[in-house]
Every structure is written in C-alpha cells, then in structure tokens.
Amino acid sequence: MARTKITRNPPPPSAHYKALYSWASEELLNECTKQITVEDVENHLGDLRLYNFNSFCKTHDSHISVRHGTPGEPICVDDKSNGGKPFFFFYQAVFKRIALRLPFTPFERELLTEVNVAPAQLHPNGWAFVRAFQILCWYLGIPPSMDVFLYFFEVKKAREKSLGELFRGRQQDPLHPLPKLLQRLERHFFRVCCAKPDPTALDGFPLYRTEKPKHTKPKSLDELASADREVCVALAGLKVIFHTPTLISHEFKADALSAYFGREVRLLLFLNI
Fold this sequence. Notes:
The chain is an alpha+beta fold.
C-alpha cells in the first residue's frame, strides 16, 4: 500500500479557525507549523542515547510532552482547538540553536508574564538574550533578576509582525546579539503539552498568543532595588560585550566559561556583587 504523501506546506486554515479567532489577522491565521509528523519530532531529538542540546530536555518526559502539530492549524489557536487541554507552541530553532530546555525556569516564566507574551510570541533572538543572561547570572552566583534584565533590554515589536516581540539592548547591555541565523523560522513549531506526572509544568506564564503585549522601556537605576542596582552598575562598568552564542555553547563548561569571562568578571565574583 502506498504511503500518504505529507506536504511540507500546510493547507490554509479552515473557516472553523477563522470563526473561533475572529480577532486574528490573515497573516496569523496563515502561520501554521511545518512540524506535522512523528518523524519531525524523532529527527529533532536525534539519538535518544545522547539526548544532547538538540533535544528538548534530558528529563522532559517526566514533565512535558513535545508533539508535532496538526496540518493547517494556526499557531494563534488556544485550548478551544484542543478540547480544553493546555498546551503552547514553541520554535524548533530555540531548542536546536539556543539549547533552551523545558520546563521553563522561574525567571523565564516570570519574564513571559511580565511582558505578557506566549513562548512562541517572543522572537527567537529574544530567547537567546534570555538564555545568555541566565548563564551570566549563574556564573556570577546571583539569581537572574527580571529588573536587571529589563534594565539592559526593552521589548519591541520585531519587524516580522507574525513573529512577535523582540528584546533589544540599550547602549551598555553586556550581551552581543545572535548572528542572523534565526531568520526564515516561520512555520517550524512544536506543540508542548503537560505530562501526567507534573500537571503544573505549564503554569505561571501565558500559553497562548496575547493581543496586548507589554512593550517596555529600559528601567532606570532609580527604579531598581539596591541589590539590582549594584549588579547593573557592575555589569555596565565592565564595558565588555559577551558573545551570546559562546555563552550558550559553554553553559556546562566551567573552565571554558572562566577562561572566556576573564579576570574582570572573576573580580565581580570576588567582590560579591
């Protein structure tokens, strides 16, 4: 028996979706995932014995279930299209290129809530800043602070309207943006659901595309608590811009991070900022 051929260009959304999501533009309604088969998920994971950075998370099976999408289903849909079961869409590239793992960290959940965006509503380059910022904080031994992050970055709309929001750095931010490797990302999304052992894995942040994201301006030092203010002054005072892909690639390599950061950053550790 001949196998049914799966097209990589999902069919246009049906009138059913247009009726359910009348607020959505034609552009959003036509943004449907190309990850539509079990093979798409398996190819992304690669060798299960390795479970390397191309995978979703080393322990994701106990928390979440990552699945392929449905042909012709727009990524702006919510649980009305899923029998009331919670889920969210997420970029394949953020797993593959930025090594983000699930479930989200408390900082990531708090940040999504603060700027009022769903995970797929934040541009992948914005996710790169989020990941690199956390690695920098963990190396320095300080908790990632939303106020510190929003001192260095503001939220603006990305040029590609359908891709949503993007963090842009102010003049003295410590992170160099990711190279233009994350373009042409449209339609490469996985569907993330809860697994039974942890029904709270999707709690604490917007799951579905919001109509009113919060476009922030960088915070001033006067708006920050004293501890956050000291961190911002210290990081800005380094006058060093760290390469985001390098931080991400060195996340679990203490010696490589120490060599990369150098003496000035180790001095911050000594001073106990």
